[in-house]
């Protein structure tokens, strides 16, 4: 088994601090720190936009809040809604938020007259729709975490209201903002592989990540969040739709939850790893190994502790969700799923989400009439069928320096915020690639894929 530590975890998530080996003779993609400083010099804001964080957890605080901490000339957080006192106070202190703008829950933000340019909605999935509708009705622009909402009808309500109010709504499809995927898009749009014929795309979730987020954690139960194809793979449907650049017409899907179920619990296992489980030492999913010994996934990613001493961790494992045996949880989301998408002009796309891998980072192969591209988020290879030449790009350097250690998804979190503050400041949605308008269709691909999966793979038409 892979030893799971912070380094592995960061690499899986595409976070900056991991240093990866350089590729010989590879072109570096835009070196982000320099590009960032250059761009900022060219594009400074006259004054920072103001925003309210709704849900100051992993995303609200760690991704977007940190951007505000590091870029006070661009965004000022003037209010926070967060029920967990420690998280609310942490944000209030960092941004010097007055008492009357510190709220226990999102509803209270809208009891007051509009007091900021935008809201950042980073609440759990089932709490996107109501605050999003309220925010739009109150005249706010919005950074909205994915999934947009739990049903297609709710997504549509948000879209219609956003249009009516002419609000800027950025959906946090962060992959679109990474140098890696931008480079792929650039190669395709320049016609360098001709017309796309087909795509193969794999999302290797990594097994401990699966157990953390999609078995024990917030996204394990589809009714409380969304099905896996939305909660995890909406990034994939989104990036596929964006890269192909044409509408998706049909989808079929298969998949199930193979491993993490009661019936697979080994003899001697107990409902918590700390309950004297007889097989704990041999189990790859031992919470004691993951959180206490390897210190992976702790501190930041939803499993947030006030102190990292062993007794605090063990106490949390004895009582909290992350100490539960992976075979005795309330999870129902799939651990493997395949989808076939047919796009306009007969472009075929196969997508596979797989939990049972020891590695993360998406693998993508795009086949075109004049060339092809393959990549694994570290390395990108473009073969030109006309010249016979192959060019390699190195994605490992794109997100170092300039406080980028805070920013996940290969710098995508950073560049999403960079574009969002400018879209709001200049009232210019064109600054964003993932507006709600641009993000809807890939959500529909996900909803229809799930429908197909529940109907034994029946082919579903997509009509938007
Ligand atoms: N874009 C991405 O790549 C990405 C990655 C991870 C998660 N997400 C999405 O971001 C959202 C937040 O996820 P997270 O990992 O930050 O979860 P989290 O649990 O760490 O944060 C959610 C926060 O919302 C707070 N909250 C709960 N009820 C609230 C209420 N009534 N009013 C205000 N705040 C409330 C919680 O206390 C918590 O602090 C989810 O929708 C998730 O799917 C997106």
Mean pLDDT: 89
Overall shape: it is globular
- Strand content of the residues, in percent? 15-25%
How far the N terminus sits from the C terminus, by CA atoms, comes to 45 Å
What ligands can be seen in this structure? nicotinamide-adenine-dinucleotide
Tell me the name of the CATH class of the domain at 29-174: Alpha Beta
- Tell me the name of the CATH homologous superfamily of the domain at 29-174: NAD(P)-binding Rossmann-like Domain
Output the strand order for the largest sheet. 1-15-14-13-12-8-11-10-9-16
What would you report as the Rg, rounded to the nearest angstrom? 22 Å
Weakly predicted, low-confidence segments: 1-10, 13-34, 398-406
Give the beta-strand count: 16
- Give the proportion of residues in helices: 25-40%
Q: What oligomeric assembly is this protein in?
A: single chain
Specify the biggest β-sheet.
10 strands, mixed
Tell me the CATH architecture of the domain at 29-174. Answer: 3-Layer(aba) Sandwich
Could you name the CATH topology of the domain at 29-174? Rossmann fold
Helical segment count? 14
């Amino acid at each position: 088994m892979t030893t799971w530590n912070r380094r592995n975890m960061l690499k899986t998530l595409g976070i900056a601090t991991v240093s990866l080996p350089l590729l010989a003779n590879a072109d570096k993609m835009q070196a982000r720190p320099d590009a960032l400083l250059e761009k900022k010099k060219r594009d400074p804001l006259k004054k920072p936009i103001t925003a309210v964080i709704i849900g100051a957890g992993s995303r609200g605080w760690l991704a977007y809040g940190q951007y505000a901490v590091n870029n006070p000339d661009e965004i000022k957080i003037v209010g926070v809604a967060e029920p967990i006192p420690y998280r609310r106070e942490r944000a209030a202190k960092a941004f010097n938020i007055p008492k009357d703008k510190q709220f226990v829950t999102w509803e209270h933000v809208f009891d007051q007259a509009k007091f900021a340019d935008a809201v950042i909605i980073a609440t759990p999935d089932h709490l996107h729709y109501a605050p999003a509708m309220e925010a739009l009705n109150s005249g706010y622009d919005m950074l909205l975490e994915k999934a947009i909402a739990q049903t297609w009808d709710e997504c549509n309500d948000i879209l219609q209201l956003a249009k009516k109010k002419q609000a800027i709504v950025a959906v946090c499809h962060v992959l679109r903002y990474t140098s890696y995927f931008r480079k792929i898009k650039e190669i395709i749009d320049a016609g360098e592989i001709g017309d796309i014929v087909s795509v193969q795309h794999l999302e290797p979730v990594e097994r401990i990540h699966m157990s953390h987020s999609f078995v024990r954690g917030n996204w394990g139960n589809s009714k409380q969040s969304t099905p896996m194809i939305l909660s995890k793979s909406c990034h994939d449907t989104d990036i596929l739709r964006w890269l192909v650049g044409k509408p998706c017409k049909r989808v079929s899907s298969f998949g199930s939850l193979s491993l993490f179920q009661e019936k697979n619990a080994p003899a001697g296992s107990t409902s918590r790893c700390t309950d004297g489980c007889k097989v704990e030492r041999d189990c790859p999913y031992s919470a004691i190994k993951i959180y206490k010994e390897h210190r992976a996934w702790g501190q930041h990613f939803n499993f947030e502790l006030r102190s990292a001493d062993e007794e605090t961790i063990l106490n949390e494992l004895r009582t909290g969700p992350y100490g539960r045996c992976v075979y005795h949880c309330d999870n129902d989301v799939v651990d493997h799923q395949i989808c076939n998408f047919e796009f306009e002009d007969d472009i075929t796309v196969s997508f596979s989400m797989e939990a049972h891998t020891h590695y993360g980072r998406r693998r993508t192969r795009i086949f075109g009439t004049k060339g092809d591209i393959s990549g694994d988020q570290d390395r990108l290879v473009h073969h030109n069928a006309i010249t016979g030449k192959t060019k390699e790009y190195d994605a490992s350097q794109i997100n170092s320096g300039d406080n980028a250690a805070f920013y996940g998804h290969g710098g995508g979190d950073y560049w999403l915020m960079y574009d969002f503050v400018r879209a709001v400041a200049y009232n210019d949605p064109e600054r964003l690639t993932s507006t709600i308008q641009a993000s809807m269709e890939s959500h529909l691909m996900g909803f229809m894929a799930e429908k197909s999966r529940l109907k034994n793979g029946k082919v579903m038409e997509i009509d938007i």
